[in-house]
Amino acid sequence: MNKIIVFTICILLQGNIAFAQKNKKNKNTPIKEEVTAPDKYSKFVLEEKEFDFGVVNENGGLLIHNFSIKNTGNIPLIIKDIQPECGCTRSEWTTQPIAPGAVGNIRAIFNPAGRPGVFRKAITVFTNTEVEKSQVFVKGNVAPSKYQFGSTYTFQYGFTAVNNNTFNFNVLNTKSDSDYLKLYNLSNKVIKITRIETPPNIEVKGAYYEMIPNTDIELKIKFTPKSKMDFGEFSQEVKIYTNDDSFPVKLIYVNAKIKEDFSYLTPKELKKSPKFTIDRLSHHYGDIGYKDSSITYFTLTNKGKTDLIIRKVKRSCNCVNVELESMVIKPKQKVKMKVDYTSFNVVGLDIRGIKLITNDPNNQEINISISANIVR
After folding, report:
1. Among positive and negative, which fits the CA dihedral 266, 270, 273, 278?
2. Are the C-beta atoms of residues 291 and 319 closer than 8 Å to each other?
3. pLDDT one-digit tens code per residue, 107-132
4. Do 72 and 44 touch, CB atoms closer than 8 A?
5. Are 124 and 212 in contact (CB under 8 A)?
6. pLDDT-based confidence at 149, cuts 50/70/90?
7. What's the pLDDT score for residue 34?
8. Structural domains for the chain
9. What are phi and psi of 147, to 5 degrees?
């Protein structure tokens, strides 16, 4: 009996010790159910929820804005889908999971064409967050394009319209002439003129060198002959450099016809001025073989009382060669003008021109026509 009692007591003591050891171990090691489970939902913040494009031009092209979305959660942020409010707006977005702490993009693209007036469009964003749907907004005011309502602007360089791309000046050799170039911003961003490149005798100036959307500016183009001995017709270029990505350099053509100024002459001096005459104003060489040459002579006479000066001789092509016995013709003197014509790359009738510019106040420009029938 005593042995049985002692054995029972030992078993009970061992069980108490094991139970105590188990309890001690559980105090230091949390049970599995108490471990914090991973986040079920991601979290994010938007740097902005609404963007205002301001006043824009309906013909200015697509309006684009990027909304930044930052993942502030502990699991990847996934943009499941995006639904714009209407067909005038579309979206692009970061399709790959956005890691914790990283930033993604939601791009809103609005087309203002044919939608004048105030607008505010919602873009619904679907994500793996507890609140599945969020919204961002774009807004603005679409102004009807002035470009549609008149004939002021007749040429277009990218998103810049101009009233003219070619300016023609008729000017005396002692004077200047000017005109105005108008530029209109068709786009929905500020267009700036960064540089203007001109020949030394052309000046281009304006009060402003940048255009906000749907507005215009005016530049004054001033032409001055290169020298007082410039006569005849000239063609030059003006290059206007801008930040218009679609067409950055606007090329403007400046043509000028310069005549000699005789206003300083007194009535008495005018009576004594040179008087140009020529025996004929045209010549036909007849049939000429391909790449053959033919020569004719014109007779120039000064019937005035002072020297006649041939200021300049201009040819319509290098196929015509002109030689004068003298560029200065004394009163009552006659000189010969040799005209040598060589045919090239033409079969059939070929007509060319020669222009003489003189100091005869009443006959400053003389146009002479030559022709030939080119045969093989």
Report:
1. positive
2. no
3. 999 999 888 889 999 999 999 998 89
4. yes
5. no
6. low
7. 34
8. 44-143 (2.60.40.10), 146-259 (2.60.40.10), 267-375 (2.60.40.10)
9. -60, -20
